[in-house]
Design brief:
By secondary structure, this protein is α/β, with parallel strands linked by helices. It is 27% helix and 21% strand. One of its GO terms (cellular component) is cytoplasm.
Length: 477
């Protein structure tokens, strides 16, 4: 549930579970050439493609419950939710080695959906950064390139040692201190309030919160145990499990409550009284052939970054062996909201081995591109024939459907495609398990989806432990 910290009203209410939207076509051109350290070949090569894009304006959604050599060019239709889209709000989001990837990517995704121009800036000597859970992200720019710019918001993700890397960056310190002095918005989540902002002297006389593991470092009189705190231009939050609320609060402060509500609806945010988080049919034990379990997450240009990164982060926290495999001709992919992710390997490199679980992320364009991979389709058929586990998030259930792998199965998917799954569609749960198949609505529900996988593979005890680290409420039942 998204509850506005500014107006104290719930902005997401339960409505009929369907989307009424006009299909629009956007032509998206990507020109991607990212430099890497000299010791490593670049995972990105010059890549140009045009795809049919079915993004919907946020207002149409109805809630169902840089270096000088870098070149990035994206052409898309302007956001329809932001009346000031011609002069977008500018947001700086710094990252470093050990940044918490869920927090960083959720912030990027949500704020870009809201209409913000988000610059992801590396505080390291290179643009490619390995996050806390091992996800490889590529920044848009170096922090030094941002020193003379004015931003409407600076948002600091947490994670360790990421928060310490941000703290030790003198350029970022000067930019953020100037932001506070000039009364522009800034925010921090997880470890960043205590580890980054406190040493900079930016928490004085402000009510603040942070991750429970660092709460003792905060000034006692001003520390508040809450998921969100907004105090005199500073917004703070607790961890990956509160990152959506944090990002939506920042979106509301930038664009207003209406835009924040529309973004929350498009993310399928649910209320406390909305659908149950999980339903299971034909319950079986998920036995695996490896320990730790081997998990493949295939990705493509246009995959939903919040789904990809949440799956990687949570499953690696649970100690699964996660391999991110690109179906493209490059290891680097451009996700749905422009986040640049570098895969661990190519899909061709993993096709000769058996894997305990294959999970398909969603995204309209990403799903289309995954569905064209002959190697992936072969792997999915072999997975089904061998009785191994398969998962699909958001619109990617349509890939399994076209392969004939959903026959006699109970499933769920993004509301835009769930009706196409016919008799097996389950409309009153965000996560559905049927035997060795697990599916989800996607987007904001991917956290429940990933924790559901952890519960089946490792037991509810480990799932609950992971959820606690995320500062996320794990269902008791």
């Amino acid at each position: 549930m998204y509850e506005s910290p500014l107006s104290s009203v719930v902005v997401v209410t339960k409505k009929k579970r369907e989307l009424q939207c006009d299909r629009i076509t956007e032509s998206m051109s990507l020109l991607l050439l990212l430099p890497q350290p000299a010791t490593k070949p670049s995972p990105f090569t010059l890549t140009t493609f045009a795809v049919s894009h079915n993004n919907k304006p946020l207002s149409f959604f109805k809630p169902p419950r840089c270096t000088s050599n870098s070149t990035i060019s994206i052409s898309v239709s302007p956001p329809t939710t932001n009346s000031n889209a011609t002069t977008p709000k500018k947001v700086l989001l710094p990252i470093g080695f050990g940044t918490e990837e869920m927090e960083a990517v959720i912030l990027i995704h949500v704020l870009r959906r809201a209409g913000a121009q988000v610059t992801v800036a590396s505080v390291e000597s290179q643009l490619q950064v390995e996050a806390a859970g091992g996800t490889k992200l590529v920044a848009d720019a170096s922090i030094s390139d941002c020193s003379d710019q004015i931003f409407d918001l600076i948002a600091l993700p947490g994670g360790m040692p990421g928060s310490a890397r941000l703290r030790d960056c003198d350029v970022l310190r000067k930019i953020t201190c100037k932001q506070a002095e000039e009364n522009r918005l800034y925010g921090a989540i997880c470890a960043a309030p205590a580890v980054t902002l406190l040493p900079w002297g930016l928490l004085k006389k402000k009510k603040i919160t942070c991750h429970p593991a660092f709460f003792h470092k905060l000034p006692t009189f001003w520390a508040i145990k809450s998921n969100i705190q907004v105090s005199k231009g500073l917004t703070t939050s607790r961890g990956p499990g509160t990152a959506y609320l944090f990002a939506l609060s920042l979106a509301e402060q930038l664009f207003g409550e209406t835009v924040a509500r529309e973004v929350a609806e498009s993310l399928l945010m649910k209320t406390d009284n909305d659908n149950v988080s999980k339903k299971e049919f034909n319950e079986v034990e998920w036995s695996v052939g490896h320990y730790p379990p081997s998990v493949i997450i295939p990705i493509a240009h246009g995959s939903e970054e919040i789904e990809v990164v949440t799956l990687i982060d949570i499953l690696r926290r649970a100690k699964a062996n996660v391999i991110v495999a690109s179906v493209e001709k490059t290891l680097g992919v451009m996700a749905s909201q422009g986040t640049k992710i570098v895969a661990d390997s190519f899909i061709s490199d993993v096709q000769e081995s058996a894997h305990d679980l294959i999970i398909l992320p969603g995204g309209t364009v990403g799903t289309q591109r995954l569905s064209k991979s002959r190697i992936l389709k072969k792997l999915l058929k072999e997975q089904d024939s061998a009785g191994r586990i398969c998962g699909a998030v958001c619109s990617s259930s349509s890939i399994l459907h076209k392969q004939g792998l959903l026959k006699d199965k109970k499933v769920t998917a993004h509301p835009s495609v769930v009706d196409k799954l016919k008799d097996g569609a389950v409309n009153d749960a965000v996560v559905v398990i049927d035997g060795k198949l697990i599916t989800s609505e996607g987007l904001a529900s991917v956290t429940d989806f990933a924790l559901g996988i952890v519960g089946k593979l490792f037991g509810n005890g480990r799932a609950r432990s992971v959820a606690e680290g995320l500062v996320y409420e794990y269902p008791r039942k």
